[in-house]
């Protein structure tokens, strides 16, 4: 079974509008972390935001926020005020385990290609 | 702080050859993980090293190996290259501090096997 599911292969958004990229996950481990990465066509994987499973508040980093709904096992990325430079592939990833005591392996979804239109 | 560096950035090899890729993590990070990215399979975990010890390994054949040095720099080696090994190889430098965790990736090495 897939551990990370991103159901939107592609999304379009108008510049300056907000967009939500969906991510659902599956794990039986109560301790886990959720990540979002941006990958432009250059190939570099850029860290955007992190949410730990015990964090009570949704994570925010500038224009990025993570809508964490633990009971639904969803971790959607919200990008506010989209910019042309936001056009890229976006990956949701999960690490089972927290802290430095267990391995840092990430499991990735298949990604969502976001296109921002002027 | 300097970011994660990977060398070389691009590589062309022929079938049967071997290749060694290098990754230098962020200063102070003791964990390095390696991933293979292909259009068909997406991002797949290869292995993770922490303080010179391999803590986890993905489902790849024994041709794929790695190691980590005392300065946390890591190398991965692929022997007897196959056409299907053509991919973007990414390494991640990781650290967990308190309730925060960071996993930063390097720019990747693009390997083409002819």
Notes on the structure:
Chain A has 118 residues and is mostly beta strands. Chain A contains no helices and 12 strands. Chain A has strands at residues 4-5, 10-14, 19-21, 24-25, 32-39, 46-52, 60-61, 64-69, 74-79, 88-96, 107-108, 112-117. In chain A, strands 2, 5, 6, 10, 11 and 12 form a 6-stranded mixed beta sheet that branches. A 4-stranded antiparallel beta sheet of chain A has the order 3-9-8-7, with no helix packed on it. Chain A has a two-stranded antiparallel ribbon with strand order 1-4. By secondary structure, chain B is mainly beta. Chain B is 0% helix and 59% strand. Chain B has no helices and 11 strands. In chain B, strand 5 and strand 6 (53-57) form a beta hairpin. Chain B is globular. The N and C termini of chain B lie far apart (37 Å). In chain B, 36% of the residues are buried. Classes of the chains: A mainly beta (118), B mainly beta (114). Chain A binds chain B through residues 33, 35, 37, 42-47, 50, 52, 54-55, 91, 93, 95, 98-100, 102-108, 110-111, and chain B through 30-31, 33, 35, 42-43, 45, 48, 50, 55-56, 58, 88, 90, 92, 94-96, 99-108, 110.
Could you provide a short overview of the structure?
The complex is a heterodimer of chains A (118) and B (114). Chain A is mostly beta strands.
